[in-house]
Structure formats: structure tokens, C-alpha cells
Design goal:
234 residues, alpha+beta, six-stranded mixed sheet, 9 strands
Length: 234
């Protein structure tokens, strides 16, 4: 169908290889390869199939790499059984469950703990999860400055009662969601309730509150005067 096609310079080894594969009569004249005889459409179709298979293979490998990366970047809530914590497994915030590991990590990094207490039935908790804790930029900001801990209101009633009492003593909001800031040695020194992404109706934004929490964390004398010592699991 395509007689007399002339190809540019190539190597003789490559010429012979293609000759064997395609079963065509080839002649070599200096630096010009002459293809004698028709090029069959089946060879062209085979080449298209090969390219398509390679493309599908690349897509498959890319999906595997993406899935592996997602698993590697999961937080520390994997294996938790409470609904509120299970819902947060895929969030970009590097959440820990309440326990000694989180406080030890905070001591190593010399960072305050950002604590979130909520429940799956709490609409304001769901709103804060959606708008704040699933936002990649906000999560990066949190992960670089805090050790984050998430608590299910329904799964830890004694702990929640202690946290609510601490915030009430410090004249801080004590409803749900409960947002607390705690030193690595267990002193609750600052807190809030629901925090919108942007300031609304005089209510400070999430970013404004966490920046204030960082400022207060640097004032160790103030924390000693105004804080509530929590009972921490050793």
C-alpha cells in the first residue's frame, strides 16, 4: 500500500532487526534505507496495540505509586475503632489518639498539643472537620507547629469530663467541638469551641486562635499561672 518509502539514516543492526520482525524485503544503500514492497496494515495495528498496552501499563504503575504514597502519608488513627476517629483517618492532619505516644512526641519536638474533641452526630464537629482539618494548606500549618490529638466524645467520657472541667475552670468554652491547647507535660492552657475558617460575626478564625495559642505557649511563666494540669496516661 505504501511502496517506495524512504527512511532516514539508521544503524544496520536496527535495520536487520526490523526486517526480521516485520518480514519485509529491505535493502541498504549507503546511508539510506529503502523499504521494498508494501507495508501491511496488520503491522501498523500491532504497533498501535503495543503503544496502547505500554500506555495502560504506565497508568497502572502510576496508580500503584499514588496508592502507596497515600498509605505512607496516613496519620496515627489507623486501627482506632471509634467512629469519630475512623472518619479522620484520611484527613491530612497528622492526628494521634490520646495517649503517652502523643505527649512523648510533643516533648521531643517541643511543641504544644492541639486537641480536638468531637462526635459524629455533632454538626459543628463535622463542619470543622470538613472546612479546617481536611484543608491541605491548614493541615500543613498544623503539622509543622503542633502535635495533634483527636478524641471521640462518646468513646472517652471520663477524659472528656476532665477536659471540659479544665476549660470551664479557665473560663474557656466547654462544648462541642472542644478545641484545646496543651503543653507536652499535660497543662491545658488555652482553648476554644467551634472555629470558622474565616472570622465571622466577631468570632475569631481558626488561624487567629492557633496563632494566639503559639504565642501563649512561648510564655512559660503565664502558663504556670493560668493552666490546668491534666491526668496523662503514662
Amino acid at each position: 500500500m505504501y511502496p517506495g518509502i524512504t527512511l532516514g539514516p539508521t544503524c544496520l543492526h536496527s535495520t536487520r532487526k526490523h526486517n526480521n520482525l516485520l518480514g519485509r524485503s529491505l535493502s541498504w544503500r549507503g546511508r539510506v534505507l529503502l523499504l521494498v514492497g508494501p507495508v501491511t496494515s496488520s503491522a501498523g495495528l500491532n504497533l498501535i496495540d503495543m503503544r496502547r498496552n505500554v500506555f495502560l501499563l504506565v497508568l497502572g504503575l502510576a496508580s500503584i505509586v499514588t496508592a502507596t504514597g497515600a498509605q505512607a502519608s496516613s496519620n496515627h488513627l489507623s486501627g482506632q475503632t471509634s467512629p469519630y476517629l475512623q472518619r479522620a483517618v484520611s484527613q491530612p492532619v497528622d492526628w494521634y489518639p490520646w495517649g503517652a505516644e502523643a505527649f512523648q512526641r510533643a516533648k521531643e519536638l517541643k511543641r504544644p498539643i492541639l486537641l480536638d474533641v468531637g462526635a459524629v452526630w455533632c454538626p459543628w464537629c463535622s463542619l470543622m472537620d470538613r472546612d479546617t482539618y481536611t484543608n491541605t494548606a491548614t493541615a500543613d500549618y498544623i503539622n509543622q507547629r503542633f502535635v495533634s490529638v483527636k478524641v471521640d466524645f462518646d468513646a472517652a467520657p471520663e477524659l472528656v469530663a476532665q477536659l471540659q472541667r479544665a476549660q470551664a475552670v479557665l473560663n474557656l468554652p466547654a462544648g462541642l467541638p472542644l478545641t484545646s491547647f496543651i503543653t507536652p507535660d499535660g497543662k491545658l492552657y488555652f482553648g476554644a469551641g467551634y472555629l470558622p475558617v474565616d472570622r465571622k460575626a466577631g468570632k475569631p478564625s481558626f488561624r487567629e486562635v492557633v496563632e494566639e495559642a503559639l504565642r501563649l505557649f512561648a510564655d512559660k511563666g503565664k502558663i504556670e499561672e493560668e493552666s490546668f494540669q491534666l491526668e496523662i496516661t503514662k
